[in-house]
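User: Please predict the structure of the protein below. I'd like the answer in structure-token form so I can feed it into my own downstream comparison script.

Assistant: Understood. Taking the following sequence of 701 residues as input:
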Amino acid sequence: MADRGASALSLPDDWPAHPDPILALNRMGSFDWDLDTGLLQMDARAHEVFDVRPDEYDGHPETLAARVPRGEAMRLDTVVSQALKDGSENYGAYFRVRLRDGTLRWTHAQGYIRRDDTGRPRRIIGIVRDATQELAEAEGRREQAALDEARRMQTNVVELTTAALAHARTVDDVIEVLRDTHGLTRLGATSLVMGLVEAGRIRLVADGPENSFVPGTRITRIDEPYPMSEVVRTLTPRFIESPEEFARNYPILWPHITHLNITAAAYLPLIAQARPIGAIGLLYSDRHGFSPDDRNVILALGSSIAQSLQRAMLYEQESDLAHSLQRAMLPRTIPSVPGADVAVRYRSATVSGSLGRDIGGDWYDLIPLPGGRVGAVIGDVQGHDTHAASVMGQLRIVLRAYAAEGHPPATVMARASVFLHELDTDRFATCLYAEADLATGVVQVVRAGHIDPLVRLADGSCRRLPVPGGLPLGLSAEFGRLDYPVGTIELDPGATLLLCTDGLVEQPGADLDDGMKTLTALIAAGPHDVRDLADLLIEVAAERGGDDDVALLLLRRRTPHTPQPGGRLQQHVAPGDPEALVEARHMIRAAVAAWGAADRADEIELVADELITNALMHTEGSAVVTLRVLTGSERRLRVEVEDSSSALPRRREAGESGVSGRGLLLVDLLTDRWGVEARGGGKCVWCEFVALGAGTPDETG
């Protein structure tokens, strides 16, 4: 072994001819080799290094052949010859010397080459020493460095695996991290098995490499003679250091896994909060035994796995509970609606790293109403947690109850807002309620801070339906603004009404209007069938991702094959609200046209307007206007205006110059029948018009 140039010997010209005392202090011997004569002179310490006595050495290097093995001598000659040839001033080499007792000793020689003026080498002066301890120390340092590197790599594996486990949300995520090539395989494990403790048994959740499953071990008792059962039972790790030990201790299991060529295995109990939650087994094909460091690293890794597994199991339990709550709060089934095709969809959000936040307060509902009408609801309670879901469930129930009681849409929304305000919660909700008469296609829409609905016409075109709205539920009651204007639209046969939450519309980095345009284009190009269209929309939402859930309701009015029965519409008109009065007039005109009585539209609108105005002027309260179709011997349209006053209207003479007093006169002249009915603490003024269109019975009066 040569080290030329690594530690040069530089001797001055006046170097002592007898440096023995100086070198002896450093446990070195010296030599002086005259290249012209070939004589190699050594001092006493050099004789000791070569283990020769002075009387055994005659000054010729060949005499040392008995002490320097042939292979070592050839290597040393090569080093010296090369140094002489290439003009080097010095050289150094490690070689072995055979001592008298036959043992080999590492030795180091270092020479300084003296040349004449022509560059010819004439003399080599050098030192020689016992290098056994030096090389042993160097080897020890190398071994220690290798050991330190191995420990560093093992620690690095633990750190990397622990960091990856920190992001695992489910048990499958934990298993995937451990199976990853950057995980346990860096520790040399060929594969792993893992089981979870459930009701006193161990359920296998990871069963090693392909074709390694042992029949009958999917679920095992803790008292059975298997290694995972043993470590769970004793809470003590089990290190199996040879195939013979495995076969001896687990004779039932071993015959089934001999084809895996397992040479060693480590089984660890996974302990969390002082109780076993599972066990893991690491299987090795090229390991024989475990050092103390190996065991410590594996135990540390087992502790990290146990903590991650506990978090994953807790997450899955919380997630199952949350989704069960979500399913319980949403309608189990959607009722069949005569004259309509309905599709509903729900997709929960997935919020990365947030336990329990993949549940939200979005909901939909479809409410059958008297007279062939149907109420469609879409809403979104603030937040993504179980509290939002529970509030959503309560709000869905009260909205359904208010609608089923027959309240007009504005009243349904106002009462729901008061309910949410009085509920012990800090949450608010956006909502849209649409009450549709499928016989006529008239739809009344009330919006509480929610996004507008969309409609796709029979020709496939799609557009947004701007609807005036009020504050979100809960906030409107808090700020004392319970007015919810009612928008009236007509849903033609073959047209589809689409209600959705903002999770279907909002996109990162884009505003709401852009999202609505994108959704409108997607609906226009989508399939005709509402179920296929709903699937497409929810798939697009899933691909886009996002941290908000999505609720979706589609209602398509079928093309009637026979004349359809009439229906019933109702609207609340508050005093001092001219917009509500305008909306009521629009509703009346749209309904009359849809019900086939366009020839009497002016008369009906004029009479209804008169009755509403009288109620607002003379009762100092609100009015509720109701339109319905009555069939008996003849088809009639009935207008009812309710107020909270029990005072009956009376006929007055207006006089030639009077500006009032003609209301009941108009009612009497333009209607076919009219009258007054007591309603609780108030009254209802009604009137009927014989319609020319034909129809089938719906309600009788």
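That's the full token string. Residues 4-11, 352-356, 561-565, 694-701 have pLDDT under 50 and may be disordered.
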